[in-house]
Amino acid sequence: MHIISPVLWQFLVKWLTNFALFPAEASTIAPYTDALYFFLILISLVGLVIVALLVFGFSIAYRAEKNPVATHIEGSTLLEATWTIIPLALFMVCFVWGALLYFRIYNPPTNAMNIYIVGKQWMWKAEHPGGQHEINALHIPINRPVQLTMISQDVFHSYSIPAFRVKREVIPGRYSTVWFEATLPGTYHLFCTQYCGTLHSQMIGQIVAMKPEDYQAWTAGSTSGASLAQNGERLYASLGCNGCHSGQADARGPNLAAVYGAKLQLASGSYVTVDDAFLRDTILNPSMHVTSGYAPIMPTYQGQVSEEGLIDLVEYIKRLNSNYRNQQTLTTSQVSPAQAGTVAPNATSGPGMVKQ
Ligand code: HEC
Ligand SMILES: [Cu+2]
């Protein structure tokens, strides 16, 4: 999609990077956003030069001593059509180009790995499915699409990685997602780009993009013992979810195995596809969308589970595909499927519970 020769392009990028005007292009999308950006700058510059030259030229050609009496001009259809159609064509090019890029930026590839981000005044927490936790840092492999599922615990924040040319609002009460594929190993800036209070400027961190083998080593070395799904399983038992969602035929709640990604019919007759946001909503607001064929007896868990706890539950239910147990070795989990239905003794102080 480059509009100029690759050699000139490389030169331009290197030059701008060295002058620190432009961060490195470290993701697959970066050259594309930059190409559009440079195109916008280019046409603005061309417009600027044309206008400046005309002002300069006309003020000499039509100066007072050469034209003592002003000429009355009625207008020119050709001229007006020209200065309407050419800018319109340019704007349409920007629009189509921008729209195509927008769809690319907003649609994550289906094979993207997912990492959760919780923003709060004033720090970024990252939770990897394997249970690795980080504060104000994010380790990721290069050459692999990564999707971030993000939520705020308090006010609006915005997760921005300039070197990857991505940025997305992080909203209280709702998951938002962003994806990227890093191409260059290195350490890059992470910024909060939404003014969020006194220490907003310190809500920054490091993105560490690593070669796949280094990332593997990092993952193995920083695990906290239990994966998110394993924490979720414990929480699921301690909150008594399995009292109703036991998966047995006489259970009071629907079987949640393989519910993720499924299309559910609601009592209202409409259909929803079960995604992360739906799971989170159901746990906090079960009456919002009641599944067809069931009584609205599920209690709300509002105020009882932290955002991290909700992520653990979501991650657990996501992996509750029938073969989940065969894939995971639940060495750290105290809860076995046989215990389903009993409330764990530490029901008030599980790992994901809200601390009052
Ligand atoms: C008192 C029984 C009960 C408890 C406890 C309960 N649920 Fe439910 N749950 C239900 C019923 C009944 C439905 C279906 C009706 C509805 O959507 O409200 C449901 C629906 C759901 C759904 C929507 C998916 C579907 O197939 O309908 C999810 C997800 C869910 N529950 C998760 C949980 C989690 C997680 C917990 C624990 C934090 C929990 N439930 C605790 C009874 C319960
Ligand atoms: Cu912030």
From TrEMBL:
Q: Which reaction does it catalyse?
A: 4 Fe(II)-[cytochrome c] + O2 + 8 H(+)(in) = 4 Fe(III)-[cytochrome c] + 2 H2O + 4 H(+)(out)
**Which residue ranges does the record assign to the Cytochrome oxidase subunit II transmembrane region profile domain?**
12-109
Listed EC numbers? 7.1.1.9
GO cellular component term of the entry, any? plasma membrane
Span of domain Cytochrome c = 227-321
List residues traversing the bilayer: 36-62, 83-103
Q: Which cofactor does it need?
A: Cu cation
Domain Cytochrome oxidase subunit II copper A binding residues, every copy: 110-221
GO biological process terms on file: ATP synthesis coupled electron transport
Compartments it resides in? Cell membrane; Membrane
Spans of biased composition, class Polar residues?
Answer: 329-349
What keywords were assigned to this record?
Copper, Electron transport, Heme, Iron, Membrane, Metal-binding, Respiratory chain, Translocase, Transmembrane, Transmembrane helix, Transport
* Record NCBIfam families: CoxB (TIGR02866)
Q: Which family does it belong to?
A: Belongs to the cytochrome c oxidase subunit 2 family.
Q: What does this protein do?
A: Subunits I and II form the functional core of the enzyme complex. Electrons originating in cytochrome c are transferred via heme a and Cu(A) to the binuclear center formed by heme a3 and Cu(B).
**What is the name listed in the Swiss-Prot or TrEMBL entry for this protein?**
Cytochrome c oxidase subunit 2
